Amino acid sequence: MSLIIIGTVAFDAIETPFGKTDKIVGGAATFASLAASYFYDKTKIVAVVGDDFPKKDIEKLQEFGVDTEGLQIKVGEKSFFWSGKYHNDMNSRDTLITELNVLEQFDPIIPESYQDCEYLMLGNLTPQVQSTVIKRLKNRPKLIVLDTMNFWMDIMMDDLKETISMVDVLTINDSEARQLSGEYSLVKAAKKILEMGPKYLIIKKGEHGALLFHEDKIFSAPALPLADVFDPTGAGDTFAGGFIGYLAKVGTINFNNMKNALIFGSALASFCVEKFGTERLLELNEEMIEDRIQQFVNLSLFDIKS
Amino acid sequence: MSLIIIGTVAFDAIETPFGKTDKIVGGAATFASLAASYFYDKTKIVAVVGDDFPKKDIEKLQEFGVDTEGLQIKVGEKSFFWSGKYHNDMNSRDTLITELNVLEQFDPIIPESYQDCEYLMLGNLTPQVQSTVIKRLKNRPKLIVLDTMNFWMDIMMDDLKETISMVDVLTINDSEARQLSGEYSLVKAAKKILEMGPKYLIIKKGEHGALLFHEDKIFSAPALPLADVFDPTGAGDTFAGGFIGYLAKVGTINFNNMKNALIFGSALASFCVEKFGTERLLELNEEMIEDRIQQFVNLSLFDIKS
Predict the structure, then answer these.
(1) Which of A126, A256, B218, B268 is the most exposed place for a label (fewest CB within 10 A)?
(2) Residue of chain A minimizing CA distance to B205
(3) In whole angstroms, what is the distance from residue B64 CA to residue B268 CA?
(4) What's phi and psi for A55, nearest 5 deg?
(5) Does the beta carbon of A184 lie under 8 angstroms from any beta carbon of chain B?
(6) Nearest residue to B124 (alpha-carbon basis) of B14, B246, B190, B27
(7) How many angstroms separate the CA of residue A132 from the nearest CA in chain B?
(8) Which of B302, B305, B306 would you mutate first to test chain A, the one with the most A CBs within 10 A?
(9) What is the dihedral of CA A105, A111, A112, A114, to 10 degrees?
């Protein structure tokens, strides 16, 4: 039994009001698998890099227990590279450079040892690549989580909707939920999106937390108010990785466990933004995570006796 | 012992994507006192209207147990009038008309029977009028809550800061907290604002809920996701009225009761926006409020066993 995460393993160059990096390691699968590794020890990735990707960074993932057999290394090709600059509010950013490189022809190969997949996280990629992974698994996983973005809604909505129809959980942000549904109210948007296939919808609202919709139930997870957001890159992927990693650990899918998974995902994401790139995710331990969860408890819980 | 609410009693004309009203009854003190009346039966208002204000609408407040002895009626003058138009997202609005009328020379007279004031809600008005009310009370109330807005920060920041230094709780929205403190991070903003005098700071984030700051503690109250927001006018005043009305009812000021007060205020505000003006606030009952509170419990509560 395992958790498979598909997504990018890549280079980022990031500029924020706090500083600037050269090319550092990033990518959705990197952030998500590191986050998941804190909860679940059978996390495996499917991704592609060029031979410019440092061996030591692949070994770093392996040190965290991440199985990289499904990470293809394309000789003579270059890894995906994204460069962006965040504005002062840290909520908006400009993309400076996107070099697809190896991603242009990415054919996600599933190693035979991955066929025990029970939990599948489809990180943001073309909808066809995402659906291909589902089709190449001999048994449908117990839980499929899909992350996507407005870019695919703009250029290939039909393909995206087909992929959405195949999954159990969809994670998007509030403006994407509005774009996908054509509804401004998130309650109405969620109702329409849940009719497209997924049984659960997570709407990410950044510094305002996240909403979980299932049937007629709603859960609101707060975001931890932070004094400093150093670099938001990868926060959404870290959230998704922590979310599915926690669910893989507890092994039972229900609304209560989903709620907790949202809190664990939010807690991991709150660490992620404290340093550049994956830096913070590499130095956590169980006690730090428990302390952070306690902060979420203190932040959210109230006790009304009527 | 009583709760005094000072603020406007006025006319509004509102346009939203759902419809348009003629002049209807509005004003901060109207919304706040109606909300408070559901929790506390010794709610008194200090306000001013012209003789154009319908007697039946004053009687309506009285029916809700609101003491209107401090409501001055200026013969030959006109009531405050505001007209606004909400944009499609309902989060932003344009002011079309502001006629100060009786507000221009508002001298808040405190009836002798109001001198038992224990809880004081200073609704949005000029900072001088707000501080005058504090000075005219012979005994300092047990709890003073101040609501204000960016308008006063733009034109009389020094007066506003003096009034802020005299109160226990300040309620403002997120952009106002940033303007008042000069800090983008709400955590840093709250730290600075709590050094200005108030022991508690509530940052209202509209559809994203509200944050309560006290010493080094933070509580995040969710907003109830709604399918339809019909008219947001008065939601902030309703929140404040429900908040202080609940505290007046329980009678003990501590962080836990403040948290609950935020939830009760948010619940009342979630009703307010369901119809135009005060319409919805006039038709609530205890059972409806309890049901709504239960929705907030379901929305927020999770149970993590580590």
Answers:
(1) A256
(2) A208
(3) 15
(4) -60, -35
(5) yes
(6) B27
(7) 35
(8) B302
(9) -120
Structure tokens at B151: 């308008």
B75 in reach of chain A (CB within 8 A): no
| B219 interfaces chain A, CB cutoff of 8 Å | yes
The fold of A2-10+28-300 is: UDP-N-acetylmuramoyl-L-alanine:D-glutamate ligase (3.40.1190)
State whether residue B175 sits within 8 Å of chain A by CB: no
What is the Cα–Cα distance from A268 to A276, expressed in whole angstroms? 14
What is the second-level CATH architecture of the domain B2-300? 3-Layer(aba) Sandwich (3.40)
Number of alpha helices (DSSP H) and beta strands (DSSP E) in chain A:
10, 14
Chain A interface, mutation test: which of B208, B214, B216, B255, most A Cβ atoms within 10 Å?
Answer: B208
Using CA coordinates, name the residue in chain B closest to A175.
Answer: B89
Residue by residue, what is the 3-state secondary structure of chain B? CEEEEECCCEEEEEEECCEECCCEEECHHHHHHHHHHCCCCCEEEEEEEECCCCHHHHHHHHHCCCEEEEEEEECCCCCCEEEEEECCCCCCEEEEEEECHHHHHCCCCCCHHHCCEEEEEECCCCHHHHHHHHHHCCCCCCEEEEECCHHHHHHCHHHHHHHHCCCCEEEEEHHHHHHHHCCCCHHHHHHHHHCCCCCEEEEECHHHCEEEEECCEEEEECCCCCCCCCCCCCHHHHHHHHHHHHHHHHCCCCHHHHHHHHHHHHHHHHHHCCCCCCHHHHCCCHHHHHHHHHHHHHHHCCCCCC
Report the C-alpha gap between B209 and B187 in whole angstroms.
16
Q: What is the 3-state secondary structure (H, E, C) of A181-203?
A: HCCCCHHHHHHHHHCCCCCEEEE
CA distance B255 to chain A (A): 10
**Residues composing chain A:** 306
